[in-house]
Amino acid sequence: MSRFAKVKQENTQDLGELDARYRLGQADEVEYEIKSKKGLTERLVRQISKRKSEPKWMLEMRLSALKRFEEMPIPKWGGDIGAIKFDEIHYYLRPKMKEVKSWDEVPKEVKATFEKIGVPQAEREYLAGVKSQFDSEVIYGSLKKALAKKGVVFLSMDEGLKQYPDIVKKYFGTVVPLGDNKLAALNTAVWSGGSFVYVPKGVEVDLPLQAYFRINSENAGQFERTLIVVEEGAKVHYVEGCFLAGTMIETGGGRKVIESITKKDKVLTHLGRLRKVNYLQSREYSGGLYRIKYWGDSTEELVLTEEHPILAVRRVLKNERNGSWKRDWLKPGEINVGDYLTIPVDRETRIREIVGFKVKTWSGKNKGYIEVVRDVPCTPEFFRLVGYYLAEGSISSGSYLNFSFSKYEREYIEDVKRLMKKVFGQEKSHESVHKKNNGISVVFSSVELCQIFENFGKKSYLKQIPEWMVHESEDKQRELLVGWYRGDGNYYRKRHSSGLKEVFRINTTSEKLVRQLRTVLLRLGVVSYINARERGDEGRRMMYTLGVSGEWMVKFGEMVGVEVRMKVNDKKRATKFGFDGDYMYVPVRQIRCEQVRRKRVYNFGVDRDESYVAGGVAVHNCSAPAYTSGSLHAAVVEIVVKAGARCQYTTVQNWYKNVFNLVTKRAWVGEGGEMRWIDGNLGCIAENQKLITPDGVVKIEQIKVGQKVLSYDERKERLVFRRVLAKRNSGRQRVYDVSIGARKIRVTRNHPFYSYRYDSTRPKKLGRYELGFVRADELSKAIVPRTSLDYGKEYGLKKPKLRTEFWSGNQHKNGLRVVREQKSRLKIGDRTTGKLMWLFGYWLGDGDMSIKYGVNEKVVRWAKLGFSCPKDNRARERLMGIMSEVVEASPTERKDGVHVSWSSKELVELFVTNGFVGKAIDRRVPGWVWSLPEEQRVAFVSGYIDADGTVKEGRIDIKSVNKTLLEDVASLLVTLGITSRLFTEFSESREVIIQGYKTVAHGSYRLSFEIDGRFERYIAGVLVDKIKQVSPKVKEQKRLVGRSGIKLGGDVEIARVKFEDVGKELPTWDIEVEGTGNFICEGFIVHNSRLTMKYPACILAGKGAKGETLSIAWAGEGQHQDAGAKMIHLAPKTSSRIISKSISKDGGRASYRGMVQMSKGASGAKSKVVCDALILDDKSRSDTYPVNRIWENEVSLEHEATVSKVGEEQLFYLMSRGISEHEAEAMIVNGFLEPVMKEIPFEYAIEMNRLVNLEMEGSVG
């Protein structure tokens, strides 16, 4: 419906007609000359090569690539592609038709396909040639003779290999090596089709060469290979057209374990209805496995993989229940404790008047027992009778139907008799009295009744109701609950010290029944919870309780005839659960995540709704919206541009939704130029992670562009400081811990760490080991600093106030203002020194303080600082010497000789105001200590070693009851290049003896690290002697890279790492560092994020060079589209232009990320950047992340960016002239795109407009 008044329209066309001619989701019927079996084998690879009559070297390359494909892991950059079924793909398809030279020769079915993907018949008038990939084989092509005479080659890749084998051999696989990534290896092994373009030196191709691609066969792979070689001075434009087993699933036939789900099942979806299962999935999974528990069902634990979406609601206020419920599909890592999961209300309703039960009856000697159907009236009375049976019913000997009550429940006894007569006409019954337990059983003698009630379970733990009862009318279900409650329910009402506590409870030993009745209650608008109690030690079965509390008690009380007031304890009743009629909202109680390897997991598809209820809550199909089951497009594009040459590459692709479009595109440009297309984001660092600057330690989110950070120069093999060129906030992302002992950093799983790789396929002579950067989740060993550059500066101490002001009074007058000034007894300066830092460190381990406050707690009357340091202690002499230089006060020795103290309020305040405070169990290292010069950090740690440290077997151990304090010290050691390990000796409380005194230790932890000679200057002489006795030589093997013979520089070493999923999403950050491209963070060498690495890049290295990027990004529902470019000007008079247009609709998100750099020496350089965004609704968003770096004075840079919405005034103006709202929006969008449309060839502009119109209609994914 329009947002404006209805307008009379004439001669308007429904774009649905266009959609009917443009079905991208349907495959055309095509006969195949060759269609390989599913799956990839060496035999298939050899067959592909043989059928194509390839040279031997290509077969060898294919086989090498196949081996790499089998060895390499699935890439984890970008979206999750774990759902690709590589064994279900046809890797070679050849349509039954020959290559033709003109459009008229193209078969009708192929014309139909190309018409759908937008190849216009008029292309012959505008295009130099067409090479169309139809299931990897070239079907149609034309090439102008004039260009052919110039030597321009535009062939299928197969023909290119046959006719120009030397050129192909020279460049094939040089830009994108076969081992670049798993998908590139797959393409190299099975490539078929694609284009070969060769432009000789000095030749200009004015008209664009074009290729359209489409996968026509379901479960087919398209693996075209494109190689473009542009010789010196030439020009060309190329256009390219899960859950673990045992998880319970809610089905129409009851709960089933996920591994037993079949395509015959119907499952409950998030919309509260039953839908068919349309496909099944089972795979081995390695990665994060989440375990989520929620309030409302103590028996359930949701166990699922990290990518599986759950229908959830964010908590708005920490201590209050949400007032509104905005549902969203969230991955487990995006959910926090307190957020709400959703339990959909099963709204399927099927009302019956009569229900038939099969019973066996005697039919004489000849026939014996026969099966007949007894019809029973499906009435509220029957439902209440069933409720009584579920609670109190039993069957004896197959002939006696029993209902057991207390003798005080005469009303219920008579009700059962009355119901039995009305429903079944059964009047006769017998009452059996049980004096021991004051019970009465009502017995009905009837084999037929027993057979009917057997449908509801013969034993208590097998009690259940048929699924048709779950979907009956509310009036009947209400009576079912009345009968059940009267038998097994109770109204708990008891006053406690905290107030009156009330709850309805119904108990049963049947797990199935308690869940069915919870479903029924939700249908009736009553929220309930499930608890379970183990009774194994009593020799009894598990007891399940269905509870109703809070505001839901009022409605339930009305149902069962118990009056419940709206308020309790003078407050309105409330629970932690939410309900809106369609969903029950249950808060998350606990989230745990663990890393698993090769676990069998299960998933399935659901017709239309694409969701189901697992573990009691609504979840989505496992595949992300951008990737569903279907075909695989794994192409490789290699471009080689020689010096002075120019290549423009434009992509207009039209894939339907179930295609995995995973392409590796890369170009090499001579004379230092470079342009890259790499799918993937090299990761981010979580907030609060610390970097080292010359002035001290700074958290990554506080780093400023222009600051210098500690980095590692790989070429010179030494630590250096380098400038930060760029920084950005990358939003909340899933983070992981990478650690070496207590050296720990928190990053996204794809962030690169300095390490090395081993390539077994490379010849040994060339070296199989290579230093480089490895993703966090693929990292086994890291190269880390083993020392540090000196940084930081002395800390300005906070000194105690010597002037005290307070109010007092005497017998003569009150309200006297008293001012008292003291002379300082401190002998220290205003900044920290090595000796003072040793004293602070020693106090952390062996110090204490006593403070006595006045009436005003802000005023200290008396204080003393003490140390547990006997006269024979190794640090005694140093302690006494330093204290004499710090304060003018005499020490006081305790009688037992194990403690010495100094009475000085000023001294204590010095410690307190600078962050040294608290008892041994809760002390911390003040944050400013990390930014001290190296000598003072060493002195500080040395003081702590003297207090609590020991030397043993080449290591220093520090023990403490304070684990957090040891973690602080470990972090401080990292700034010195020292790796430590933290051990738990015991964590429970126990009695210990310290210096002859019995006390209680609340845990013991040990920090252990290798001896470092820098500590010798400050630690006690006794320890120095021990160090000299056991000090090991530097372990050379820590600097050797495998068996390569590569030896690292003295500043770094190799250590084994641990990778862990912390199950959190945190704000993340990226920075880019000048020169080295890496930085030291939390003691690890990590690479730049290379903010624009996944976008086209031009390095303009020659005088007068030009670079240009035009891009359009359309972000629809569930999509995040990035567009941008990187232009680096190195030479004079270079010029570049970036035009980026983005459109967001239906909740989509579009981003522009780009960088323009004018380097020193690029005088006269010019650049213009235009990034415009159009947002079509309030659900969508657009982001712009530009970076401009200007290092040269005489340059010109223009940058403009706009973000706009479709205006109400624009729409009203157009609609008032008889144009529909949709057409009006489309006109505005086309006008917005006009600047780019004018830049691309006319035929493609027409096709682009067509695609935009279809996107506006929502018919194209």
Please give a handful of descriptors for the protein shown.
1261 residues; alpha+beta; Endonuclease - Pi-scei, Chain A, domain 1; Endonuclease I-creI; nine-stranded antiparallel sheet; six-stranded mixed sheet; 25 helices; globular; disordered N terminus
Q: What does this protein look like?
A:
- Helix 10 runs parallel beside helix 14 (474-488) and helix 24 (1221-1237) runs antiparallel to helix 25 (1242-1257).
- Strands 12, 15, 16, 17, 18, 19, 20, 33 and 34 form a nine-stranded antiparallel beta sheet that branches. Strands 3, 4, 7, 8, 11 and 39 form a six-stranded mixed beta sheet that branches.
- The chain is built from 25 helices and 78 strands.
- The N terminus and C terminus are likely disordered.
- Among the domains are: 31-241 and 631-674, no CATH class; 244-347 and 582-620, Beta Complex (Endonuclease - Pi-scei, Chain A, domain 1); 354-572, Endonuclease I-creI (Roll); 833-862 and 891-1030, Roll (Endonuclease I-creI).
- The chain is globular.
- 21% of the residues lie in helices and 37% in strands.
- The protein is α+β, with helices and mostly antiparallel strands and 1261 residues long.
